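#struct-pred
JK: can someone run the complex with iron/sulfur cluster? inputs below
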Amino acid sequence: MTDLSTIPSAAMQALPGMPRGEPTSMVDTLGRPLHDLRISVTDRCNLRCTYCMPREVFDRNHVFLPRAELLSFEEIARLAGSFVALGVHKIRLTGGEPLLRRNLEQLVATLAGLHTPSGKPVEITLTTNGVLLSRQAQALKDAGLARVSVSLDGLTDEIFSRMSDSAVPVSTVLDGIAAAQRAGFAPVKVNMVVKRGVNDHEIIPMAEHFRNSGVVLRFIEYMDVGNTNGWRMDEVVTAKEILEQLAARYPICQVDPNYIGEVAERWCYADGGGEIGVIASITQAFCQTCTRARLSTDGKLYTCLFAGNGMDLRAPLRGGATDQELTALIAERWQRRTDRYSELRQAATQPLTSATPGKKIEMSYIGG
Ligand code: SAM
Ligand code: SF4
Ligand code: SF4
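RT: done, structure tokens with the ligand placed:
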């Protein structure tokens, strides 16, 4: 097991051009520091979005993790402390649907009490489908949640139901967004995954709905995550196409990123109607500035969204490892990190988009 003192001090500095972090930031093999941690608090969900948890796979017979396999809040907090010691200053709670995890605000309160080595509070954020948000928004805000992103892929019940494969009405999610705004989250971000032929005609109605509302709407290119969504390149509506649609309707101008490595490209309405964003994970890979680690519901560390294997942190945690030993394990793994899946996929999909549109890309070609 690596001792923290063996991490070379040169590796504990952010490289030029990378987001400036804590002085203790250590870097991976491509010079990327560890700044963000996404924690999945449950593998369950109350929706069945076709691009994420298709019902054919996540049906009644699907076996979700038994309770004993989930990290407890105490375990999550201990691991989070180790990540923070290594440079993490933003933690995003996600899932599955994180609001299904009972008493989530208690976890938020604990995590919001973490401080970086230089004494800054860690920023805690949440991504939710919004279905249960209206009754939890205030408690989450009071617990110290800094920001919330809500996923919503359409404004009509028909399209929302096609995307989420559920009978939940859109108004439930809109109520959740409104409750988050009332609780003082500003701005609330709304994420819309765009799938060609399913909800791409909702781009302008969504923009129109959220213009002048204080909500930042962000369009996300449909990604090939997992092995179950039957992803095809020809179903991806590219950020370029999305921006062309928006620009044909509204004068828009590009806005500087908030920080180097921000995944969304920022735009605003020239008439002051607010901000919009595009997340071009397929066509403009941002691996070079990817500073995110992911902790699965059962305590595995993944250093890429597309990684096949995670490193088990739960076993050492439950086996009595000290905080320093856990920190050293995480550091050692991060320093070996080579992931740049989207970059490699982009190189592979480029010829297909232009030369043979609609042809199904071979996952084996891009390494699954
Ligand atoms: N259930 C929560 C939600 O939907 O916001 C949190 C978990 S969900 C996996 C996190 C985000 O991933 C959502 O914004 C969702 O739209 C996005 N997502 C899931 N599958 C995706 C895919 N295949 N392509 C692009 N985005 C995807
Ligand atoms: Fe559930 Fe979120 Fe996945 Fe939709 S995107 S199935 S809401 S986890
Ligand atoms: Fe980061 Fe992996 Fe996504 Fe690249 S593909 S941006 S390394 S999570």
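RT: quick notes.
The mean pLDDT is 89.
DSSP finds eleven helices and twelve strands in the chain.
JK: thanks, will look after standup
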